[in-house]
Records
---
Amino acid sequence: DIQMTQSPSSLSASVGDRVTITCRASQSISGFLSWYHQKPGKAPKLLIYAASNLQSGVPSRFSGSGSGTDFTLTISSLQPEDFATYYCQQSYTTPTFGQGTRLEIK
Amino acid sequence: QITLKESGPTLVKPTQTLTLTCTFSGFSLSTSGVGVGWIRQSPGKALEWLALIYWDDDNRYSPSLKSRLTITKDTSKNQVVLTMTNMDPVDTATYYCAHRPRGVATRFDYWGQGTLVTVSS
């Protein structure tokens, strides 16, 4: 299995902040990386696919970058509805998810 | 509009076999490139991908669970069924099915609401 490691595991931020979450793969996955967020009691929601492609309907404050082993998700200006847990997922081989990053209100 | 919904038992006993059904609408599982996957989440834990079936009956399984999983589809009923044998309390989780759209990269763009399965005697 390809292991996906996210950092940080949790962070606190304020509305309006710029936030970056990192995902590192245990081997190169080219650009086969997606990002989701999940709110308590809800199913995950797809934000970004193929490393940098914004899923339809997702606000443009979300962006993704990276290739190979290192990827980032950036939220340019945090909104109240963005406080959630974020997961990366590789699909270079059979899919695996990162352990999650909990984004909390400061 | 794509929707998916999971159904199955909420409680199973250790060693039993779990059978979950995903009933979907808004897409066809006979469309090239399309698939349906299963993902689970133990309480307070991360997401864990389990299995994926494609429009052409090709399927993929988590290597660590492959021996216990079977995924099948019934295109005429718009259903995908996942069976997991030899259930254990560590398999207690919310089980989600999700739509895999066409394209090279596997991602899941529509999800069911999830169904909580508890494994306990």
---
Amino acid sequence: GNSVTQMEGPVTLSEEAFLTINCTYTATGYPSLFWYVQYPGEGLQLLLKATKADDKGSNKGFEATYRKETTSFHLEKGSVQVSDSAVYFCALSSNTGTASKLTFGTGTRLQVTL
Amino acid sequence: DAGVTQSPTHLIKTRGQQVTLRCSPKSGHDTVSWYQQALGQGPQFIFQYYEEEERQRGNFPDRFSGHQFPNYSSELNVNALLLGDSALYLCASRPPGGRSSTSVYGYTFGSGTRLTVV
């Protein structure tokens, strides 16, 4: 079955530091890949996505590249801000059959300090 | 434009009771999915509704059931509540277009209903 593995948190960084959150996946077919962010007390917000190999998703300074050869979709940001503190979820949607549900990783908590 | 709306925001129930959670999808969306997010975990897929029918189901017991109405809103029902059912329940909606819509748009999530079973 499909699965997503994320690096465990929490990740604590100083403001303006470089961020990487690792995500690898196992899936049948050619899934679409997503990063969602969850701020305290809120639901999930779509941060970025990629639908095929070598696609780069980007939004609000965050980037992730769909790497089929390594089955990875690592999230990066060059300079984090305190406002980026949240939980980040990597997810996939399989493109085989009729399946369109999202399969999530366990989430990585990011804490950015001044 | 309102996003996905869920009610209530918080709920406390006693073990063995039944609960109904409600969801209004984003305007223009026709497919609704429900997820359970236990504390410190990622969301787990419960089921998906489209055209008022359950289309996909995750690994959840029959105590979990749902419904979709002609206006695309949805309900999640849980019978015989267990302590382990305590979680944040998230509703997510998607525009028409099937699997390709998921790829292009992802899902829009509501803020969830926090269910506590005591």
---
Amino acid sequence: EDKVVQSPLSLVVHEGDTVTLNCSYEVTNFRSLLWYKQEKKAPTFLFMLTSSGIEKKSGRLSSILDKKELFSILNITATQTGDSAVYLCAFRVAGNNRKLIWGLGTSLAVNP
Amino acid sequence: DAGVTQSPTHLIKTRGQQVTLRCSPKSGHDTVSWYQQALGQGPQFIFQYYEEEERQRGNFPDRFSGHQFPNYSSELNVNALLLGDSALYLCASSLDPGGYYNSPLHFGNGTRLTVT
């Protein structure tokens, strides 16, 4: 059965710290992996990764995919209190791209 | 450019009742997916609509049904509500012509359903 596991489940850091969130998966016919940030309501899209070894970057956030080892990481440098949220990863299976399989998320709390 | 909009934002129902949730996709998007998110869980896929048809369905009973209209908006209906149906219901839209375009989903703010 296809599944995705995120770790850690929760994390508390101080402003200015760097954090690394992990997403590992077991899936047949991988097509893409997506990262989302969820605060109060709607998950907001961060990155979509399809190719191994290519880093996606947006400001202080970056992500990379390792298709051989079946995982992805999301890095946040110089964390701010506004980074406090649940970070979700999901993957899409080739030939079945109408559905995403989601992890439980990592709850990040950034304290001042 | 309007994003995904959902209504209502909150809803309280009693066991056994029926509920209808509504979603308008982001401008230019033609595919709508519905997700159920319980507290502390990732979203669980309910079903997806494209070209006014249900294209794929997750592991949800027939009590969960939906519809997509010609303007791409969508409804989620849940009959015979159970306490366990209490959750945040998220609608997401994407541009998915023919089901082959690998586009990310854009989510609405959800409807918080409480069943008492």
---
Amino acid sequence: EVQLVESGGGLVKPGGSLRLSCAASGFTFSSYSMHWVRQAPGKGLEWVSSISSNGGYELYIDSVKGRFIVSRDNAKKSLYLQMNSLRVEDTAVYFCARDDSTQEYLPYWGQGTLVTVSS
Amino acid sequence: SYALTQPPSVSVSPGQTARITCSGDALAKKYAYWYQQKPGQAPVLIIYKDSERPSGIPERFSGSSSGTTVTLTISGVQAEDEADYYCQSADTSDTSYYVFGTGTKVTVL
């Protein structure tokens, strides 16, 4: 059974940093691209970042470019999101997700971790 | 990137049929996917490749596509179907990976 478990969320002041983790199990982690999707309170889903299976390709939504860094450790079956220079508008539940082999959709999601940016 | 537009809300009585549309020019060439999200929970995939249903998803959920619009149909709506529904498509540009629709709140009266 595919399982994705996020951790690392919390309350941080504007300008601060936070590192999210996602522990994966139940599948060959190194074979799949992995993704972060966020949802601001009362708002819709927003794709944030993706990383290829070997970590060689990264992609970010424009609003986080230069501030967030996605990475992975295939040996530890873990995905990370380093979030720097956090803004109030980054407040959201952050979901880790695994794609289908076609990379067209997200059949597997973690339960999410809440990041609150507030002074 | 591109946009996918959904109606903000749909209300339906139990046993009736709910239809949720998702519109966007990219849908003429790309598959659409649908997710159900209940409060405090992660999204769950309910339709893939426009009309396919993953195992374990009730038959009352179905999808269809026509031109630049895809439709999620819930036949014989049940109280447990009250949730937010999002369409999604892939983005093959270098600007994003996935595009989500604006979301539709389904209320069962």
